[in-house]
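Sample entry (152 residues):
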Amino acid sequence: MNVRLNGAWPTVSAGKTFFNGAWRTLTNGKAYVSAEWHDIASFVQPVTLSAHGGGTRSTAQTMTTGATATPSGGLGPFAYSWSVLSSTNLTGISISGANTASPSITATVTPNTPGTSGTAVLQCVATDSLGQTASAQTGVNFLIFQPPTGTQ
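Predicted structure, serialized as tokens:
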């Protein structure tokens, strides 16, 4: 896009403008030229992120659950990076698909006793194609349960 600036017409490939109390990235929009509106620029809202963790229960000591990150605003596509911030009663925590919006989390609950639960706090950082980042945290839960006796 070209804009008139100090008597010249330089090409602008990215920019920001102050709009509704915040700096917004300018990518597309409209201009009124020759009695018609033409697309030339728009505003990209800042990226925000929400995350939701899952839970699972099993008679096995090692189990898997999932989590999901949902970005809004920003300009896709998005890059994701999941990490474990903390855990309780869990060992061997691994994140399969840590660079996706919906990874799988596998962990071993310790001790291996029915009724023992484990939790982990995960963080996801999402980066949009303009380099804006947002982060969100969520928990995942694991429970070793004992099936009722006398049932087959």
